Amino acid sequence: MAKNAIVGQSGGPTSVINSSLAGVYQGSVSRGADNVFGMVNGIQGLLNNRIVNLSDYLISNLEIELLKRTPSAYLGSCRYKLPHFKDDISVYEKIFKILKELEIEYFFYIGGNDSMDTICKLSDYAKEIKSDIKFMGVPKTIDNDLMVTDHTPGYGSAAKYIGVVMKEIVRDATVYDTPYVTVVEIMGRNSGWLTAATSLSKSDDCEGVDMICLPEVPFESDKFLVKTERLLKEKKDIVIAVSEGLKLTDGRYVCELSDDARFTDAFGHKNLTGTARYLSNQVMKKIGIKSRSIELSTLQRCAGHLTSRTDITEAYQVGGAAAKAAFEGHSGEMVALKRLSNDPYQCTTQTHDIHKVANFEKKIPLEWLNSDCTDVTPVFHQYLRPLIQAELTPIFINGLPQHIYLKNTD
Amino acid sequence: MAKNAIVGQSGGPTSVINSSLAGVYQGSVSRGADNVFGMVNGIQGLLNNRIVNLSDYLISNLEIELLKRTPSAYLGSCRYKLPHFKDDISVYEKIFKILKELEIEYFFYIGGNDSMDTICKLSDYAKEIKSDIKFMGVPKTIDNDLMVTDHTPGYGSAAKYIGVVMKEIVRDATVYDTPYVTVVEIMGRNSGWLTAATSLSKSDDCEGVDMICLPEVPFESDKFLVKTERLLKEKKDIVIAVSEGLKLTDGRYVCELSDDARFTDAFGHKNLTGTARYLSNQVMKKIGIKSRSIELSTLQRCAGHLTSRTDITEAYQVGGAAAKAAFEGHSGEMVALKRLSNDPYQCTTQTHDIHKVANFEKKIPLEWLNSDCTDVTPVFHQYLRPLIQAELTPIFINGLPQHIYLKNTD
Question: What is the pTM (predicted TM-score) of this model?
Answer without folding.
Answer: 0.96
